[in-house]
């Protein structure tokens, strides 16, 4: 598969988004993405991200620091898992 600049940009945003705590308010993803202790997305980044992806599942930090999020690409239904 050939990687395009758009692929790299999408992967970068997904990687950044996984630092958000989607467990605090399970439906307020906009605030979670923009929070200073999370991804720190701008308003425009948040809107663009949420138009393209939805959060399918989020496992918050456990005692070991493991956290992961499964994102779903809305257009294709493709699931993407990111761990931190």
Characterization of this structure:
The protein has helices at residues 5-17, 29-34, 43-52, and strands at residues 53-59, 68-73, 79-83. The model has no long low-confidence stretch (mean pLDDT 90). It is globular and about 40 Å long. Strands 1-2-3 form a three-stranded antiparallel β-sheet. It has one domain. The chain is an alpha+beta fold and 84 residues long. Strand 1 (53-59) and strand 2 form a beta hairpin. It contains three helices and three strands, in the order H-H-H-E-E-E.
Ranges with pLDDT <50 over ≥5 residues?
none
The helix-strand sequence is HHHEEE
Summarize the biggest pleated sheet.
3 strands, antiparallel
Number of extended strands: 3
Number of helices: 3
Q: Count the domains.
A: 1
Shape label: globular
Radius of gyration: 12 Å
The end-to-end span amounts to 25 Å
Estimate the helix proportion, in percent: 25-40%
Rounded mean pLDDT is 90
In what range is the share of β-strand residues?
A: 15-25%
Helix vs. strand class:
alpha+beta
Give the strand line-up of the largest sheet: 1-2-3
Give structural attributes.
84 residues, three-stranded antiparallel sheet, alpha+beta, single chain, 3 helices
Brief summary:
With 84 residues, the chain is α+β, with helices and mostly antiparallel strands. It has one domain. It is built from three helices and three strands.
């Amino acid at each position: 598969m050939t990687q395009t600049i758009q692929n790299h940009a999408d992967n970068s945003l997904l990687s950044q988004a996984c630092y958000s705590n989607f467990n605090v308010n399970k439906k307020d993803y906009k605030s979670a993405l923009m929070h200073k202790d999370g991804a720190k997305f701008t308003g425009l980044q948040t809107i663009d991200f949420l138009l393209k992806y939805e959060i399918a599942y989020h496992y918050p930090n456990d005692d070991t620091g493991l956290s992961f999020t499964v994102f779903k690409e809305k257009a294709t239904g493709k699931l993407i898992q990111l761990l931190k």
